[in-house]
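Below sits our specimen:

——
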Amino acid sequence: TWKCQDTVKQRTAMDFTCKKSKPSPTPSPSIKPSVAPSSSPSSSPSPASGIFVVKPYLVYPSDKPMYPEYESSVKNYLTELQNWYKEKVGETFVVEPLKVVRSQYDYLTMRCDPNPNDALPPSDACKQNQNQIDGNWPMYMNKAIHNGQESWEIQNVALVFSAGGGGYAGGVFFGTNLGGWAIVGDWVLEPISGVASSWGIPCALSNGWQCSGGVPKGTPAHELGHAFGLPHPDETLYPGQSIMRWHGDYPTVGFLPHEVEYLKNSPFFN
């Protein structure tokens, strides 16, 4: 089984722990590599109902205003994403209705505090740099969608659109018949909605390409593929174009033949 996670928050180099596939444009140095999810027992997948589904969430910090356009655009995009997978794979996944949730933590804590339970305050450098993320972003998403607990559920994939997450993008697969999670941030929400965040990390703080072309919509498609269990394909063994190699060619790009076969045999597509 694969257990993978994107390691660059800004969606530039697709340095996946499974395989490094293709260099991408140089990221801004202000956003640090993402922190791995908590390895504490409470963050282990918990039992589900036996139905394999994708559960989408739109997550906000406790202290920041919401944007109605984000909710409507995410709903529209989810339908598009289902249809895109149907076109490229021949089958698609079941998706539950979008849930909009608030974290129990304020934005500064989420953005700058790696561990809110210790006595160490967020760094001054992070506080003063709007586009820096030092916090354990997956942990904060986990707690937000599970009422303050860390417990990813098995037999589903949590697809999280995180307001305030800037260029964060990551996906993890727990193992066969388990599920995973995929998380994206402002550089998806702003382009698909047309609304820039006044308090988060807007596209104006990106290098530009992350919020243009097929990259914004291709990012959740790519990360969802990781959550289903697909790694970056080895270019030597599997030449050709794939969303799992480069997501900026969305929606015209699809999957490699072995990736299609894998997805068709996944319980999420059966």
About this structure: Helices lie at 68-89, 107-112, 124-128, 137-145, 186-193, 215-228, 257-264. The chain has seven helices and five strands. The first strand starts at residue 53 and ends at 60. The two ends are 19 Å apart (CA to CA).
